[in-house]
Amino acid sequence: MRTDVAIVGAGPAGLSLAACLAGSGLGIVLVERQPETVLADPPFDGREIALTHASQAMLARLGAWGRLSEADIAPIGEARVLNGHMPLALRLSPPERAGEPLGWFVPNHAIRRSLFETVVAQGEARFLCERSAVGLELGGREARLSLDDGSAIDARLVVAADTRFSILRGLAGIAADRLDFGKTMIVARVEHDRPNGRVATEWYAHGYTIAMLPLRDHVSSAVLTVSPAEAARLMALSDEAYGAEVTRRYEGRLGRMRLVSTRHPYPLVAVYARRFVARRFALAGDAAVGMHPTTAHGYNLGLSGAWTLAECLREAASRGADPGGARPLLAYAAAHRRASLPMYHATNAIARLYTDERAPAFLARAAVLAAGAALAPVRRAIVARLMARPPALAAA
Ligand SMILES: Cc1cc2nc3c(=O)[nH]c(=O)nc-3n(C[C@H](O)[C@H](O)[C@H](O)COP(=O)(O)OP(=O)(O)OC[C@H]3O[C@@H](n4cnc5c(N)ncnc54)[C@H](O)[C@@H]3O)c2cc1C
Model pTM? Predict the structure, then answer.
């Protein structure tokens, strides 16, 4: 088989790229190891993705936002960060006159489903499901992707969106920096007696971190970060005992909590590829930048990266140039590095500072929070970043 662009991985990043490339005139093949029925109706995986205004605008432009059901979209009224039992909180809220939320929580499986429906409706990409990419040869004129059924695809460009533990990244000879936080995050939905007021809270308690993400007035996603051993113990609890454990760890702030979903553990490992491109090859989504979830930027960056890569490829295609050539790939790599590297380092610094149990870290957290709480310009800058829309998408 021959195509212009072969994308490996039909997760949120791979699907976003395919959707962004519609209308470019480029042939697109998506290779995914999961069955098409799973892509059409992905199961709940516990992740509630906080989307920025820029991401919302991009999804709206692609037609994916309109495919989400209202029940899947939870506006975020305010975000608060708390350190131990200090009364001081860092509060982030939209400017009073904006009349808009800080962002939105949308379940990961709903994003996947809406993107899949979008790509199918566009009718331009071809899906090869239940097949895994297992081999890669990067040639001067074409790249050859080998699949586990013995077939191969010759493409002018191969894009790997095959998770942060990307196999293709290694096959392309690209090394990646890896940071293992030695913690596991358990995510699950809970129902609670008191309303959450649409406030997302991240609380750094002693020995663990607990975040509450508001989904409906009396339903939140409870995000618990603990040691792997503690995570194994918590995963083995009955649903009732887990609800009681979350109630206790959240110190009853929202009243009694009951588990209303399955629980999903995620080991926390951040990954940053040393290069985003090679000859006829590019990395996208978590395969390029796998973020710690604390600043909620993984998919937001994956989507903006897919948008950028698609723009570079479109520009090449419109000139009749080679989409797998060095110029569009280097332009993408430079832009995506600029957009992601400061956020990656800042996120890792925050994640380390907030999971360190030693007294100096507690004091450093207190100082950072106090500075953030006292300095209105700092708060305004964070809020402005979350709510910013690229000028070209302002009207989307
Ligand atoms: C608990 C948690 C909370 C998060 N919260 C947020 C948030 O609030 N905001 C935010 O922006 N981000 C958040 N993220 C990050 C976000 O979920 C990821 O950035 C995003 O899902 C990555 O998408 P992806 O398509 O790159 O990878 P994946 O979702 O991992 O998808 C990769 C796809 O590739 C397929 N695949 C892999 N290897 C092969 C192969 N060899 N051949 C064929 N197919 C293959 C897989 O089957 C899969 O479908 C969170 C992550 C976690 C764990």
Answer: 0.94
> What pLDDT, on a 0 to 100 scale, did the predictor assign at position 97?
62
Q: Ligand 1 pocket by C-beta < 6 Å: which residues? A: 8-14, 31-34, 47, 49-50, 108, 132-133, 161-163, 167, 185, 187, 266, 285-286, 293, 296-300, 302
* 8 A C-beta contact, residue 339 and residue 305: yes
Q: CA-to-CA distance for 229 and 361, rounded, in angstroms?
A: 23
Nearest CA to ligand 1 atom 44: 32
Calpha distance 65→56 (Å, rounded): 7
Give the pLDDT band of residue 203 (cuts 50, 70, 90).
confident
What is the per-residue pLDDT across 331-352, written as a single tens digit (0 to 9) for each?
A: 999 999 999 999 898 888 877 7
Task: List pLDDT tens digits, range 114-140.
Answer: 999 999 999 999 999 999 999 999 999
Residue nearest to atom 17 of ligand 1 (CA): 299
In angstroms, the first-to-last Cα distance of the chain is: 37
The Cα 101–Cα 94 span in angstroms is 6
- Enumerate domains of the chain plus CATH numbers: 2-74+104-178+269-360 (3.50.50.60)
DSSP codes, 281-304: EEE-GGGTEE--GGG--HHHHHHH
